[in-house]
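=== RUN LOG ===
request id: a7f3
mode: sequence -> structure
chains: 1
length: 135
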Amino acid sequence: MTGDQSHVTKSLAQFVAGSQWDAIPPEVRCEGVRGLLNFVGCALGGARDEAMDIAVSVLALNAAFLNAASANVLEYDDTHLGTVMHPAGPVASGLFALAELRPVSGRELLHAFIIGVETSCRVGLAVMPTHYRRG
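=== RESULT ===
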């Protein structure tokens, strides 16, 4: 990479590592709650779908994948229009699976979710639309 591109990963890592809960505006926190509730509703709605029965039998209960598949199977999950991706599914799925191993507070979970979605969208915007052409 050349020029400003050589510092993109470092800048993104500094943003994530330096994020503080108190710096997140109330309206963003509210959207974070909405995003998590949407994820949970979609995952619960999709949990009994036939596709999930197949996934459970094949994947031997890989929690993060099953959480994401369940939230996406009915196609009601969030969409970030700038990237045409569904950021809540992969972010929340990993967080809930990790929270089984390392208990966290609701505040910590919401903070990680907000920063995870923001990071996903930033990376998505950086590669949009060339990643579609490359498959």
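=== NOTES ===
The mean pLDDT is 89.
The radius of gyration is 16 Å.
=== END ===
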